[in-house]
């Protein structure tokens, strides 16, 4: 099992404690504060229900899957080269945490919440103002590509550094989805690291979520067993990127 370890802040942001995802159990919720939450261990599958294979993912192509709730979208991405390791990050409230790095043989597989922490822009089936801009492509949000860009107000995030903010008004990194790649190359989501915006999102988009899922409880349902994972360009009709 190829695991991404991570660190958790305890007691107001001064003490960093290493935690292995293999040790994640419910009791850690209570002990370890708010910046890591274990959810169901969920396998990423394609639209036919077959496991997504790490080796088959094309580099620099963003995929979308919903986790840990039925309506909360995330990016899955293989970056162009290996990611950094043990990146120190800071949430909006000043709490520090450490993102351990990408997973997979080439340490290039990452997953982040696709809900922008500035004003909650996110991909929808109709359009997406947030996307990954490949290396070599231009964006108004940053001096070069290889970044996740929210084109609503031009925030840029570094996918190789825990989605650290590189520019724009975003107040904190995108929350990271903690993923693992097993020996078969199958991919699993196990939790969320960082400050997420799930509850703001549920509150702000209640009417839309109600309409789409017919029931807000369905939108807030915890994902179990598997999560359908599709390329962003198939998930949404239009990608808007500046
Ligand atoms: S909502 Fe993403 S930058 Fe404003």
Describe the structure in your own words:
This is Rieske Fe-S protein. It comes from Nitratiruptor tergarcus DSM 16512. One of its GO terms (molecular function) is 2 iron, 2 sulfur cluster binding. InterPro entries: Rieske_2Fe-2S (IPR017941), Rieske_2Fe-2S_sf (IPR036922), Rieske_Fe-S_prot (IPR014349). Keywords: 2Fe-2S, Disulfide bond, Iron, Iron-sulfur, Metal-binding. The longest helix is centred in the C-terminal third of the chain and has 8 residues. A hairpin with a 4-residue loop joins strand 1 and strand 2. The chain contains five helices and 17 strands. 12% of the residues lie in helices and 36% in strands. It is mainly beta and 242 residues long. It has a single domain, classed as Rieske [2Fe-2S] iron-sulphur domain (Rieske Iron-sulfur Protein, 3-layer Sandwich), CATH 2.102.10.10. The protein has a seven-stranded mixed beta sheet with strand order 8-5-4-16-3-15-14. Strands 10-11-12-13 form a four-stranded antiparallel beta sheet, with no helix packed on it. The N terminus is likely disordered. The chain binds FE2/S2 (inorganic) cluster.
Key traits:
5 helices; binds FE2/S2 (inorganic) cluster; 17 strands; 242 residues; disordered N terminus; globular
**How confident overall, as mean pLDDT?**
89
The number of distinct helices, counting runs of at least 4 residues, comes to 5
The unique ligands bound to this protein are: FE2/S2 (inorganic) cluster
Please give the oligomerization state of what you see.
single chain
């Amino acid at each position: 099992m190829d695991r991404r370890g991570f660190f958790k802040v305890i007691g107001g942001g001064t003490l960093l404690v290493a935690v292995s995802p293999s040790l994640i159990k419910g009791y850690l919720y209570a002990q370890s504060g708010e910046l890591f939450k274990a959810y169901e261990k969920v396998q990423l599958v394609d639209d036919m229900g077959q496991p997504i294979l790490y080796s088959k993912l094309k580099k620099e192509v963003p995929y979308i899957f919903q986790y840990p709730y039925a309506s909360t979208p995330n990016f899955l991405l293989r970056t162009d080269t290996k990611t950094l390791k043990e990146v120190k990050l800071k949430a909006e409230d000043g709490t520090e945490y450490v993102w351990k790095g990408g997973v997979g043989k080439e340490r290039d597989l990452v997953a982040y919440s696709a809900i922008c922490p500035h004003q909650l822009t996110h991909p929808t089936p109709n359009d997406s103002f947030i996307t990954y801009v490949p290396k070599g492509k231009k964006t108004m949000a940053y001096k070069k590509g290889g970044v996740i860009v929210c084109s609503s107000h031009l925030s840029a995030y570094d996918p190789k550094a825990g989605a650290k903010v590189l520019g724009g008004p975003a107040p904190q990194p995108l929350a990271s989805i903690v993923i693992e790649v097993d020996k078969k190359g199958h991919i699993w989501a196990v939790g969320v690291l960082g400050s997420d915006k799930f509850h703001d999102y549920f509150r702000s988009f209640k009417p839309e979520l109600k309409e789409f899922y017919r029931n807000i409880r369905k939108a807030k349902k915890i994902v179990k067993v598997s999560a359908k994972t599709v390329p962003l360009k198939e998930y949404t009709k239009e990608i808007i990127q500046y």
